[in-house]
Write a structure and sequence with these properties.
It is a single chain. It is built from 15 helices and no strands. It is mainly alpha-helical. The longest helix is centred in the first third of the chain and has 34 residues. It is globular.
């Protein structure tokens, strides 16, 4: 390190070392936000896992469906969650940019509370039907489509930009640690007393709404010109489309997970391949989150700073390879380890992608771009479940998982060629100068 040249007679002066960015948790608003995110994710993931198991078990037990037929029902469950996301995403992004974001997120939590209470009643009375489960899954999709953009757009407004990469890593720790605890605890509670799991999730959602209300109000960012809501919704889509770097980053995850997602088949593996029941399903759902939480914890202390684009591409390729191996495994412990690897690779990719998207998007567009990104994530998850369920119905669940993982590796190679901007991203600094809105 070079020294600052001294004046005559003075000693050389060493440059002042850069002061490290403080922890996001040193900001009270962020602490409330983190708790709200953690409890909401733990509740909703536990609820979705149990809904999937109940639907598969109901289809097999009450409706007498075969494994392939019940697998197809799991695919439909993903489709029913995706439909409201596909329809309402432009509206949700506009709402996040035009209304107080904290209130939007609280309202979404309250919708999920209604779902949990309804499921508690029908589980208690042993009156569940496939149609009811599909309807409540669709309503959950409505809650998610409004919660995602609002929550994503809050964090950049309550911490300084220098702290944002660490805040995103801490967000991921909240998500992934909740994803570990939620399915495991939810599966155990469901095995002991099925209806009680929904009391658990409703309570967590109430805690999330309460702590989120303690975050300072995040008012809509000012804009020079107010345009028609439909025009502003279209602006978010157009902005994402014309900025190749953002478009390539978002669509990489979209197509890789649509093809490789094995989540929809976990009830099949837990019940009929690994023979571990609902307790095993909770552990299978928790395993990817364990791997992801460990990576997120490491990134929160030591975020990556160089060659971020290439590392993101390699992480997606590892995700696909791990999916192939999981699909072929018939050993429960090996399957848990492979799912942990899948989660770790996915977390690394999510961290890089999330940071790049947030730092390459102007604040007045963050709600709408976050909505587009959220739609891609949801499309990859829910349509991936539909793809896996349909393929499992035709060729069996193992083929569906293995084929998807191999296809994800191919998508990664194709995107590295189609979008050289991704390979060239060396740091998290903005990769382009945003065009005028």
């Amino acid at each position: 390190m070079a020294t600052i040249p001294p004046a005559d007679g003075d000693e050389p002066v060493m440059p002042t070392p850069p002061v490290p960015a403080p922890s996001p948790l040193s900001y009270p608003d962020y602490r409330y936000f983190w708790i709200a995110r953690f409890t909401a994710v733990m509740a909703t993931i536990a609820m979705v896992v149990v809904i999937g198991y109940q639907l598969y078990d109901t289809a097999r037990t009450d409706y007498g469906m075969s494994i392939r037929e019940a697998s197809f029902q799991l695919g439909l469950l993903g489709l029913f969650q995706f439909i409201p996301l596909a329809i309402l995403t432009p509206v949700a992004g506009w709402v996040a940019d035009r209304f107080e974001r904290r209130s939007v997120a609280i309202f979404s939590n309250l919708i999920d509370m209604v779902i949990a209470i309804t499921l508690c009643w029908f589980t208690w009375t042993d009156a569940l039907t496939l149609n009811l489960l599909f309807a409540l899954a669709a309503l959950h999709g409505v809650a998610r489509v409004f919660s995602g953009p609002a929550m994503s757009a809050i964090a950049p407004n309550i911490v300084p930009p220098a702290v944002l990469p660490r805040a995103i890593a801490m967000n991921s720790i909240a998500w992934q640690s909740a994803s570990v605890i939620g399915p495991a605890v939810g599966g155990l509670i469901y095995a002991a007393h099925p209806a009680s799991v929904y009391v658990f999730t409703a309570t967590l959602l109430g805690i999330s709404a309460l702590t989120l209300s303690r975050v300072r109000r995040v008012l809509p960012p000012p804009t020079e010109v107010r345009r028609h809501p439909l025009r502003e919704m279209a602006d978010g889509l157009q902005f994402t489309w014309r900025e190749r770097f953002l478009f390539g980053t978002i669509t990489l995850d979209l197509f890789a997970v649509i093809l490789s997602g094995a989540t929809a088949m976990l009830p099949v593996y837990a019940r009929d391949i690994l023979h571990m029941g609902s307790e095993g399903l909770g552990l299978l759902r928790a395993a990817p989150a364990i791997g992801a939480a460990l990576v997120a914890l490491g990134l929160s202390f030591r975020p990556i700073e160089r060659n971020v684009g290439v590392k993101m591409l390699w992480a997606v390729a590892v995700f696909g390879a791990g999916t192939v191996a999981f699909g072929l495994s018939t050993n429960f412990l090996l399957s848990l380890g492979l799912l942990a690897l899948i989660g770790a690779a996915d977390m690394f990719s999510v961290f890089v992608r999330g940071t790049l998207i947030q730092l390459n998007t102007p604040d007045h567009m963050r709600g709408r771009v976050s909505a587009v990104s959220g739609l891609a994530i949801s499309a990859s998850n829910e349509l991936g479940e539909m793809r896996a369920g349909s393929m499992a119905a035709a060729f069996g669940p193992v083929f569906a998982v293995v084929f998807g993982g191999a296809a994800a590796i191919g998508v990664t190679a194709l995107w590295a060629w189609l979008f050289p901007e991704l390979r060239r991203a060396r740091t998290f600094e903005p990769q382009f100068k945003p065009t005028a809105d």
